[in-house]
Sequence to fold (310 residues):
Amino acid sequence: MPTYNYARYLPEAIESVLAQDYADFELLIIDDCSSDDTRSVVEAYAAADGRVVFSVNEHNLGMVENWNYCLGKARGDYVKFLFGDDVLARPDALRSMVACLDSREDVSLVGSPRNLIDDDSRLLQTLSYFSAGAVIPGAEIISRCLCDQRNQNQIGEPSVVMFRKNQASRGYNPRYHQLVDLEMWFHLLEQGSYAHLDQPLSSFRIHTEQQTAKNVLSLTYINDLSLLFDEYLFKDYVSCSRFHKRFLVYNQFYKIWKKARQNKIDGKLVQSKLALRYRPWQFFLLLPFYKVYNPLQKLWFFLIKTLELR
Fold:
């Protein structure tokens, strides 16, 4: 449980772990130099339950480095992150995920539907992109995430999954800031399959202070998407044409360019992001091809979905 200034949420997060019906775990909480009451909150739980191990970093490591520090300190065969502002949704969450990994050596990542909750832990919605009980080859999951032009993290956040520590020994890639979890899922899925359990086992909290919300405002995700495309999109197992792959790259940059044209985001910031991949003349040279292909591929996918429903 990496945490930073989440004292108000920590009791609910910690108690959701201590209430699990699977008791063979260590709850490792590492505080990245919070300025709130995190220390006093966690020390009370650590004093009452020996499974709670608490430490405070000597200096602020930042989000990704603190995740990796937690990962390095973990002693179990299996690792489950639960951020300080999230909650385990059921008392059988750990038992269900452990049972899956114990019974399926081919599975490198196990997840479930996930609840989205607000500041007051009220359920907003439940998200699930896969059939209950499905076990899907990792390459297929990577393709599904990349070839959909929304480029959604269909698996979910770190609080939603469990994986084998030895397959994640590389750690989270510090070059990423917003899509660091999705890139790790891809790394794990190149080593095995994804198992999707039937019940929502974790609740992800939506609030304005989380780092992901700040990264969206700064368009940090565009840098990460560019890296992710370079590392994974053009691999042979990603099941869409090379032309469509190039469209997917262009599409992400077109969307922020369009928002800048509508004065919804800062134009100079967008220009700096476009420069990651295109010279100005290249971007505008490709624009007519995009305008023709985009509606055609939307029509194609609509027809496919229509036929699948029949």
The mean pLDDT is 93.
